[in-house]
């Protein structure tokens, strides 16, 4: 039986002080959402610890009171992962945001979990280094959140996702004990427990400190914008570039109405009448890039690009990237609410996957903008709508489900980087057998026998949650609605 909330608050205040424990309705409002915007639920308490020991104490106390514990980085997640769906205590890592050390000799950094992704690369630049995983949310998302979702980003085409960059982590387990996983030495013997912890979405432990790999900043970078009047030509260019033996750092595509919205908002130089734009970046040694650059321009033209722009200086490059990184926000010009999906298809199936998305948009009478990591086949259809339109949410949910199903049917997956969270847990059975899911649950129970760490997410222990996608959690009134 869960203990009383006031007793729990008192016990937490004893450890963190009044400032570290938020429980008034107006304080909790901010923690009702994540970036997915559709999943909403209020925690009972939000704690803001400053050290690993404080995190451990919060976990111990909360679990002793029988309440769920939900870790939260910056809340930019897009699958409802940090939303306290079954109430309980949110642990915000916001105060634990220090870059503890950068070691240029070993090319590593030790950071607290709440450190913001971009801050690490900014500080590492003093040593000629950078942190490769670069989610488009990198100005606000945290390294702990990145590790917990195994995040990717445009640069992950060449450099890999978080799991390829996390060397070690300090983790608080559900009994309040502190575990140190991984090491600086490669190929540590034994089971790869660090590998299991990366991508755990707060269900196995709370990550408080991470040691990551840093990479040298390349000698040269070149950025291109290929502009197309035909979507198939743009997606065929993606496969053709990789088939030519080039591994771009990034290959990002923006298609449809989103291009005009980005242009109006960011003035990145994307032609508003284009059907698709492909942002391509290569990095490496200056001489090598010259050959690749010629080849990329030639391939894009051969595939049908009407124009290929080449960024000649850092300002032009930053302008082209501002369009991509600001695309999600820019689409607020089209409609006030969005739901972004995160399916993956084999690269060669991109043309048909994009055509399918367009037919889904027509059938459900929805605006869908495609902004995505084309090089990885990682689609991000952005479904745009106004919640005041009757029945729009049901249509958006059904459309989104059809797109994800198509991804699985053509040999892809239901998530490339945003994680499963609330929104996709009901679709896991498309990819895994009942025995697979039972094995995942057993693993989960080994790390968290209490079942209280982010209990309803990823691989929920209770069948009732495993069957519900975000469709069932949307449409509740928000705290803001209730206060108004
Ligand atoms: C505009 C925009 C662009 C985006 N672009 C990308 C992209 O390119 N690539 C990409 O991968 N994602 C992207 N995302 C999604 C999101 O930013 C990532 O999933 C990011 O890794 C989440 O980090 P966060 O700190 O906000 O975590 P949160 O949203 O707070 O949490 C995410 C999940 O991780 C868990 N968690 C958080 N911190 C910890 C911790 N310390 N220990 C244990 N569990 C924890 C939470 O419980 C939750 O399940 C984007 C989001 C937005 C809004």
Detailed description of the structure:
There is one protein chain. With 484 residues, this protein is α+β, with helices and mostly antiparallel strands. It has 4 domains: 5-95, Uridine Diphospho-n-acetylenolpyruvylglucosamine Reductase, domain 2 (2-Layer Sandwich), CATH 3.30.43; 99-216, Uridine Diphospho-n-acetylenolpyruvylglucosamine Reductase, domain 3 (2-Layer Sandwich); 220-330, Alpha-Beta Plaits; 335-418, 2-Layer Sandwich (Alpha-Beta Plaits), CATH 3.30.70. The chain is built from 17 helices and 18 strands. It has helices spanning 5-16, 25-28, 52-64, 117-124, 143-149, 156-159, 193-197, 231-243, 258-266, 286-303, 314-325, 327-330, 350-363, 392-409, 434-447, 463-466, 479-483; strands at 21-22, 45-47, 69-72, 89-92, 99-103, 108-112, 129-130, 166-172, 178-182, 206-213, 215-216, 220-228, 250-255, 276-284, 307-310, 337-340, 367-373, 381-385. The strands form 4 sheets. A 7-stranded antiparallel beta sheet has the order 15-12-14-13-17-18-16, with helices on both faces. α1 packs antiparallel against α3, α8 (231-243) runs antiparallel to α10 and α13 packs antiparallel against α14 (392-409). It starts with a helix and ends with a helix. 51% of the residues are buried. The model is unreliable at 471-484 (pLDDT under 50). The structure holds flavin-adenine dinucleotide. The site of flavin-adenine dinucleotide has 38 residues, from β3, α5 and β10.
Strand order of the largest sheet: 15-12-14-13-17-18-16
CATH fold naming of the largest domain: Uridine Diphospho-n-acetylenolpyruvylglucosamine Reductase, domain 3
* Number of DSSP strand runs: 18
Shape field: globular
């Amino acid at each position: 039986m869960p203990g009383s909330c006031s007793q729990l608050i008192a016990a937490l205040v004893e450890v963190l002080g009044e400032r570290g424990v938020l429980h008034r309705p107006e304080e909790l409002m901010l923690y009702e959402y994540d970036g997915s915007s559709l999943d909403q639920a209020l925690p009972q308490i939000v704690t803001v610890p400053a050290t690993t020991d404080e995190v451990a104490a919060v976990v111990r106390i909360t679990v002793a009171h029988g309440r769920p514990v939900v870790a939260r980085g910056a809340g930019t997640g897009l699958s409802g992962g940090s939303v306290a769906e079954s109430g309980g205590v949110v642990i915000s890592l916001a105060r634990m945001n220090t870059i503890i050390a950068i070691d240029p000799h070993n090319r590593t950094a030790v950071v607290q979990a709440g450190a913001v992704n971009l801050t690490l690369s900014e500080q590492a630049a003093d040593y000629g280094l950078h942190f490769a995983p670069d989610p488009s949310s990198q100005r606000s998302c945290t390294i702990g959140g990145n590790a917990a979702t195994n995040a990717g980003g445009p640069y992950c085409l060449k450099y890999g996702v978080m799991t390829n960059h996390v060397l070690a982590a300090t983790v608080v387990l559900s009994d309040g004990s502190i575990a140190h996983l991984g090491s600086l030495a490669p190929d540590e013997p034994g089971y790869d427990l660090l590998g299991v912890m990366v991508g755990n979405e707060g269900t196995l432990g709370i990550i408080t400190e991470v040691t990551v790999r840093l990479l040298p900043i390349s000698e040269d970078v070149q950025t291109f914008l290929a502009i197309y009047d035909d979507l198939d030509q743009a997606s065929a260019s993606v496969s053709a570039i990789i088939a030519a033996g080039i591994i771009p750092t990034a290959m990002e595509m923006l298609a449809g109405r989103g291009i005009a919205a980005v242009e109006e908002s960011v003035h990145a130089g994307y032609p508003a009448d284009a059907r698709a734009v492909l942002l391509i970046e290569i990095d490496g040694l200056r001489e090598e890039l010259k050959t690749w650059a010629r080849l990329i321009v030639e391939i894009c033209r051969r595939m049908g690009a009407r124009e290929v722009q080449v960024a000649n200086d850092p300002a032009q490059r930053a302008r082209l990237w501002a369009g991509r990184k600001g695309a999600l926000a820019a689409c607020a010009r089209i409609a006030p609410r969005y739901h972004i999906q995160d399916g993956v298809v084999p690269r060669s199936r991109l043309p048909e996957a994009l055509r399918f998305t367009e037919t889904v948009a027509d059938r459900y009478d929805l605006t869908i903008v495609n902004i995505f990591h084309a090089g990885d086949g990682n689609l991000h259809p952005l479904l745009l709508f106004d919640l005041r339109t009757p029945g729009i949410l049901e249509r958006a949910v059904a459309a989104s489900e059809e797109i994800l199903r198509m991804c699985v049917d053509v040999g892809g997956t239901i998530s490339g980087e945003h994680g499963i969270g609330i929104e996709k847990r009901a679709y896991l059975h498309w990819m895994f057998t009942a025995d697979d899911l039972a094995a995942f649950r057993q693993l989960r129970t080994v790390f968290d026998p209490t079942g209280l760490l982010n209990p309803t997410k990823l691989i929920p222990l209770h069948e009732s949650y495993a069957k519900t996608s975000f469709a069932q959690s949307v449409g509740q009134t928000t705290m803001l609605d209730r206060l108004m």
